[in-house]
From TrEMBL:
Active site: 10 (o-isoaspartyl threonine intermediate)
Positions with a binding annotation for substrate: 52, 81-82
Start and end residues of each L-asparaginase N-terminal domain: 2-155
Superkingdom of origin: Bacteria
SUPFAM superfamilies: Glutaminase/Asparaginase
Protein name as it appears in the record: Asparaginase
Cytoplasm among keywords: no
């Protein structure tokens, strides 16, 4: 069994035309999993519904507590990309579980999104990687504490 926690971020953003801005909405993760023909073998729980730039230290502690208390050895966390590395660093002490954080550079609701690929890649990675905390984005695996988001290039890279 794989535990999936959602925290919000771009992957779950919805465009509100009246305001001409994006806001975090309900997670599309169940639909993304279903479209990928993944119908069982996981539990889904929403922890937060925030843009990662709005996440606080107490929010990260909530994610850590949920992961620590989870009875699953394999966990996927959807997260906003801007502070994903910060949350991964907080989780890094959980060495007895395989924890994979992923997200999207474009909302899942948009036609040109990397969300479907990243979720599928995270699903595979969490089953194949040894215990530890990882960020998986756009076909690459990064260990917690050794990764940062390059805002200019809009991608993750090793530090």
């Amino acid at each position: 069994m794989i535990q999936i926690f959602t925290t919000g971020g771009t992957i779950d953003k919805v465009y509100f035309d009246a305001n001409s801005e994006f806001e975090v909405g309900h997670s599309l993760l169940p639909e993304l999993l279903s479209e990928s023909n993944i119908h069982e073998g996981y539990r889904l729980r929403e922890l937060l519904r925030k843009d990662s730039l709005e996440m606080t230290d107490s929010d990260r502690q909530l994610v850590l507590q949920a992961a620590r208390e989870c009875d699953c050895a394999r966990i996927v966390i959807t997260h906003g990309t801007d502070t994903m590395a910060d949350t991964a660093a907080v989780l890094a002490g959980l060495s007895d579980k395989t924890i994979v954080l992923t997200g999207a550079m474009q909302p899942a609701r948009m036609r040109r999104t990397d969300a479907v690929f990243n979720v599928g890649f995270a699903w595979a990675a969490v089953q194949l990687l040894p215990p530890g905390v990882y960020i998986v984005m756009n076909g690459e695996v990064f260990e917690a504490g050794a990764v940062r988001k390059n805002l200019h290039a809009q991608r993750f890279e090793r530090t």
